[in-house]
Design brief:
single chain; about 450 residues; Arc Repressor Mutant, subunit A; TIM Barrel; 4-stranded antiparallel β-sheet; 16 helices; binds iron/sulfur cluster; 4 iron, 4 sulfur cluster binding; 4Fe-4S; iron; iron-sulfur
């Protein structure tokens, strides 16, 4: 890593899975804004739906997700009752019927649901929101707690893609993060998914974990490639113990330093690209024939709260506590506190607690940020044309990007900003040139690398 990148790499920056980012959300308790945004949904709108299942059997110390340990099924069962009502609340507020093209189950661990409940939820969602014939249904799975019966249920419910949380194969690292998961366990779940016809497989890996070494990252990346995962994410561990309190169980002295993190990411990148994977944006890899790699080639790739995606839906309904919805004109989030979410749903109101409205200027910046975060290149003239905005709206961002040129983080040529391969890990720094809101939210993000 170049020494003159260090101060920028330690800056706290958003991951830019939306713009404005979640750090810009503020209280929005009356639901008025989301109702007026929903009025702009037309019958032609393709819907995406995200279901947040906020339970895990055990907490991993590195986790930054909104999840809790239910200690038995009673709390999960009561969550399912409210979720079914929430589906009805959203359906009753939708102004026009629109077909669902993408359905994603995340969390937490969606496999905390029992088979019967999962089946009921998915059937209820399909009835409420309609189903496009090309629908992709994907789910995040914890290999430690996913049963074979659950996998068979997924297959019979039409799930098309599964994302297995692997993170690391190293024993000491697994102990340090409270996630013991032997390799044979992952391999067995993968085999059962494929035997049941769920052949599109994602694997999530991490670098920068406590006690992790480059060899560990290399081993996990090689494993994911050897078993033929279609998509692989290689996320850097974000140590934010003031936000995720259980991360306090991770000792600061066990964490790799900045330059080691950079090297771990580089080693993972080398293994995966050496195995023929296409590098996508900050931290994703896809086999060349996978639809995500295809979307990078044809320019339709997007970056959303679920990361990089070829899902074209620009309207997303988020179900469950802490879920974020994307509507024409803004982002809206349900309360992370299950009792608040529950009370709102029981009262028949849209359970929105926080959010941010997207101004016309935000939309132009959002498109520029999404483009550079996905393709490592953005032509502001193209963005201005697509968004029907004057190019001058983005010109100050070009000036900011020019200041990064001497550092080798990007080149600016006419209206084009391009990030060289060696600065891929610093993409967020270049994207931040387009972010006029950053100064007010900087302290609330994880470091850039
Ligand atoms: S299984 Fe996933 S969501 Fe659950 S605690 Fe571990 S990292 Fe967090």
């Amino acid at each position: 890593m170049r020494q003159d990148w260090i101060s920028l790499a330690t800056a706290r920056l958003p991951r830019y899975t939306s713009y404005p980012t979640a750090a810009d959300f503020s209280d929005m308790p009356d639901g008025h804004a989301v109702r007026s945004a929903m009025d702009r949904i037309t019958p032609e709108t393709s819907l995406g739906v995200y279901v947040h299942v906020p339970f895990c059997e055990k907490l991993c110390w590195y986790c930054g997700c909104a999840t809790t340990v239910p200690n038995g099924y009673r709390r999960v069962s009561s969550f399912v009752d409210v979720l079914m009502k929430e589906i009805d609340v959203w359906r009753n507020h939708l102004p026009a019927h629109a077909d669902m093209r993408h359905l994603h189950f995340g969390g937490g661990s969606p496999n905390s649901l029992n088979c019967g409940d999962f089946r009921e939820i998915i059937n209820h969602i399909k009835l409420a929101f309609g189903v496009d014939e090309d629908i992709e249904i994907d789910i995040e799975l914890d290999p430690r707690t996913t049963t074979d019966a659950f996998i068979e249920t997924l297959a019979s419910c039409g799930v098309t893609r599964a994302s297995l949380g692997v993170q690391t194969l190293s024993d000491p690292v697994q102990k340090a993060i409270n996630r013991i998961q032997p390799r044979h366990m992952v391999t067995a779940k993968l085999a059962h998914l494929r035997q049941n016809g769920i052949r599109r497989i994602n694997m999530d890996l991490m670098y920068g974990l406590p006690l992790q070494t480059r060899e560990d990252v290399k081993e996990a990346a090689q494993y994911a490639a050897d078993v033929g995962a279609d998509r692989i994410s290689l996320f850097g561990y974000a140590h934010v113990p003031w936000f995720a309190k259980h991360q306090r169980a991770i000792r600061d002295e066990d964490l790799p330093g900045l330059e080691e993190r950079f090297e771990q990411a580089r080693v993972g990148h080398e293994v995966l690209t050496g195995e023929g994977y296409v590098a996508i944006g900050l931290d994703h890899y896809a086999r060349p024939e996978d639809s995500l790699a295809q979307s990078l080639r044809d320019g339709t790739i997007r970056r959303t709260f679920q990361g990089y995606t070829d899902n074209p839906c620009k309207t997303l309904i988020g179900l469950g506590p802490s879920a974020i919805s994307e509507m024409p004109g803004g982002f809206f989030q349900t309360s992370k506190a299950q009792p608040i979410w529950r009370a709102q749903v029981e009262g028949g109101v849209l359970p929105i607690s926080r959010g941010v409205l997207q101004s016309a200027d935000d939309k132009v910046r959002a498109r520029a940020i999404e483009t550079v975060m996905s393709t490592m290149r953005v032509d502001i003239a193209d963005v201005a044309r697509e968004m029907r905005a004057p190019v001058r709206a983005l010109e100050p961002a070009l000036d900011a990007a020019r200041k990064l040129e001497p550092l080798g983080l990007c080149t600016v040529s006419g209206t084009i900003v391009e990030v060289p391969e060696e600065a891929r890990m610093m993409l967020r720094t270049v994207a931040s040139c387009f972010d006029w809101r950053l100064a007010s939210s900087e302290g609330r993000h994880a470091v850039a690398v």
